[in-house]
């Protein structure tokens, strides 16, 4: 096992993990109260809305959202039940499956986005300068590949 | 409603929210698999272990962990059932209630900490330089007060 974390590392880590957890909780609570969508629902809808033909292979969706394959399967099943997404065989080779955005899913995203992004601004973006936001973007791009 | 987020703000935000959510999920999964504790359990145990006489008022615990009063009540009830914490009337004035760490709670924390902090190092700390970690600490200290 490597050497223990320093006091400074531990202090910054704790601030980050407690504060970011609270941020996730607040965003999730506000989004659910306003729209019935979870944050995972929202991120799947955004990913599909931006994809060519509004469809993404299940495996690629898992890696885009940094979710395990079993979590993505559970997530998409839940969204299918609510009519936000459907599953189809891959259009190019017929092997594997793709998640496809439904018109209802696109409407749900368009209805949810303005208020959600206003919460994001108020809870996070407005409190950071450009440099801080760039550092956050760079750090979390590294972390997601770990 | 304020002006929309810029393309750059939105890109950094998405990287952060997806990657930090994945980090939370991984830490929670590994901690639960190794110890049966959730991240909220762990953070309550840490807060109590560091408090004078291992006790904190419920309201103060909520604000320390940036949780709503109802979430803290639920969290502590769950930990009482598992013998990690008990609730007592406040020692100084008899009004209000305090969460108190049990010997079993302290043992659970001591058993869990080394492997959990090794996961924290491997998943996060090792990928940041000192300056990046300091920015993260500063930014999330601001955010938690929002």
From TrEMBL, chains A, B:
This is MarR family transcriptional regulator. Pfam families: MarR_2. It comes from Actinoplanes utahensis. One of its GO terms (molecular function) is DNA-binding transcription factor activity. GO terms for biological process: response to stress. SUPFAM superfamilies: Winged helix' DNA-binding domain (SSF46785). The lineage of its organism: Bacteria, Bacillati, Actinomycetota, Actinomycetes, Micromonosporales. InterPro entries: HTH_MarR-typ (IPR000835), MarR/SlyA-like (IPR039422), WH-like_DNA-bd_sf (IPR036388), WH_DNA-bd_sf (IPR036390). Residues 1-145 form the HTH marR-type domain.
